[in-house]
Amino acid sequence: MPADSELTKVGELNPTARILLGPGPSHVPHRVLRALASPTLGHLDPEYLAIMNETRSLLKAVFRTQNELTLAVSGTGSAGMEACVCNLIEPGDEMIVGVNGVFGTRMKDVAERCGATVHAIERPWGEIIEPEAVADSLVKHPNTKVVGLVHAETSTGAHQPIEDISTIVHESGALLLLDAVTSLGGHTLDIDGWQIDACYSGTQKCLSCPPGLAPVTFSDRAAAALDARKTRVQSWYLDMTMVRQYWGEQRVYHHTAPINMTYALRESLRIVLEEGLEPRINRHALNHRALRAGLEALGLNYIPRHSLTTLNAVHIPDGVDDARVRSRLLNEYNIEIGGGLGPFKGKAWRIGLMGASSTKGNVTYVLAALESLLTDEGVSLPAGQALSAANAMYSTN
Ligand SMILES: *Cc1c(COP(=O)(O)O)cnc(C)c1O
Asked: Looking at the structure, do residues 231 and 113 belong to the same domain, yes or no?
């Protein structure tokens, strides 16, 4: 029987439980996986509507915002990006985008597809966008409606400062849009305090939930811009004027929410708030400092001057085979790390310490594994130095 032979060829699903230290996804705690496996409700069942409301409240707390228009877009982080851009931009609008890595490049692409005239502020990969550059661009382009920046550029490890830029953007009357996919739940992010007008994130980075939803939040100013649109939103699926009626009181059917993913997100947000935002951010910072000390002891130097704590991007030393080291890490140590993208392809490693993956145990294990693999690659290293450097960081904190 053909059906039987397919069944023989395709065995029962049994993926390996990897140690996820790449640019996302990060380790998903059992509590979140159990939530995902709970019975599927109807998407208009009163029980599910209550779960949606609870998820919104938790999202507001984690985003640190009172914004009414806060919800989870159906789709991954890129859907969040597209939702923010396409709801704020109408054809002919002007938008400034900071382009210093993959995700700024992607935001520019999305904005152009929405019909925006994009003024890119380009910087070499690994660098940040300075406040003066944003100020200059706003002087040159006074009709700018939206300024879009990436808070945590996962392709380069650069940590973009936001507060000063926010003041500059608001003085010009423009809206500030922030990509917080790799910062929400890992770095300080204060939507209301920093007056961010629109922000999107993803579930699989520092929230430690499987990929599939994109938390978004829009300030009252951004919601007013949405209400003032003269044209319909380019995307039917991501049109917040409709999606908000499903998440809001009206409960108007738009599309079926990914029910079980909402359960998972709800549980992952509860875990974030149980730990507390401040202690969680401090945990990410401490594990980053220890990893950094260890990596530098191995001769692995950081690419960005302003590094994220959630993503560590380092140069691969000359003579070391990128693919061989990463495949040995995966096959012999069960550890996933990321390779370089774009100009860093074959030249950089990206080690993520996001959410539940940011632990002392993981820092210790990956440093030990890298020391051994780099030694095999012919790098001469004094044994144990990386772990001593990391331990020194842990004992002084
Ligand atoms: C991962 C990531 C995205 C895209 O998210 P997907 O879930 O892959 O769609 C966007 N921006 C940044 C900064 C990211 O790290």
From this structure: yes
